[in-house]
Amino acid sequence: MSNYMKMRVRNLNLFYGDFQALMDINMNIMENKVTALIGPSGCGKSTYLRTLNRMNDLIDHVKINGQILLDGIDIYSDQCDLIDLRKSVGMVFQKPNPFPKTIYENIVYGPKIHGIKEKSRLDEIVEKSLRGAAIWDEVKDRLDKPALGLSGGQQQRICIARCLAVEPDVILMDEPTSALDPISTLKVENLMDELKKDYTIVVVTHNMQQAGRVSDYTSFFLNGEIIETDLTENIFSNPNDKRTEDYITGRFG
Ligand SMILES: Nc1ncnc2c1ncn2[C@@H]1O[C@H](COP(=O)(O)OP(=O)(O)OP(=O)(O)O)[C@@H](O)[C@H]1O
Ligand SMILES: [Mg+2]
Q: Which of 25, 72, 114, 226 is most open to solvent, judged by the fewest CB atoms within 10 Å of its CB?
């Protein structure tokens, strides 16, 4: 079992204009584990997730201070190349968002950007990524068909495959199953369990059962602060803070 801290977040603050959305966030993100982020709507979960691969850079009026270290290197420093960062830290969104292209083209999109051209190599990546996302058998005979012709659950696994295709180290998932039916949800949850052998996963979820099922660590956010982070079993059976207990027992949020 790895005890390596893949990412270390230190004294992170984020402002949208005058509004402070994240307050003095500290977190160690453990390698080959699933970390779940829970908390009421508007508490800053998505904002925080986006800081981990600098997706907030795309939003105007965002100011960030503090440190986020990936393998010891501050991702907000000049030492960090943004293209490399987005390759190392991939993201899967709430709504499946495949490109309006074929299944094959969706998967090879990232690898092509990173300079891979050889057809046989791209074919390999497609099969490996689709297998990794547990959707190869469902789509192997229709790789040249539009990804948008698939079901929502299949589209989400295509997006996970697209993310795997560039061989990230960390995968960020923002409510990846909230638009999916229960069977697709279960597939994606089982997939997370498989993927953590090779990747480090951070997942936002509103579903407490899901957090309990898929994660090793859970972090409870409230009003832009982390109230506590602990082993998931501790958070759900014996939280340190009354506010965590109130939230997980459904007394607010
Ligand atoms: N682009 C933005 N500009 C200004 N304020 C924003 C922006 N995005 C989010 N916020 C604000 O920052 C706070 C945190 O939002 P965020 O989307 O991170 O919450 P969340 O925990 O992901 O909520 P939900 O569970 O509803 O997805 C909210 O008050 C939100 O209104
Ligand atoms: Mg959100």
A: 72
Domain assignment present for 253: no
Q: Whose CA is nearest to atom 5 of ligand 1?
A: 16
Closest to 170 (Cα-Cα) out of 8, 45, 7: 7
Residue 248 near residue 239, CB atoms below 8 Å: yes
Q: What's the CATH code of the domain at 111?
A: 3.40.50.300
Give the binding-site residues of ligand 1, using a 6 Å CB cut-off: 16, 19, 21, 39, 41-47, 59
49 Cα: distance to centroid of ligand 2 (angstroms):
9
The domain of 73 spans: 5-248
Per-residue pLDDT of 211-244, as tens digits, reads 999 999 999 999 999 999 999 999 999 999 999 9
Nearest by Cα to 76 from 55, 44, 54, 105: 54
Total domain count for the chain? 1
Q: What is the pTM of this model?
A: 0.95
- Is the pLDDT score of 25 beyond 70? yes
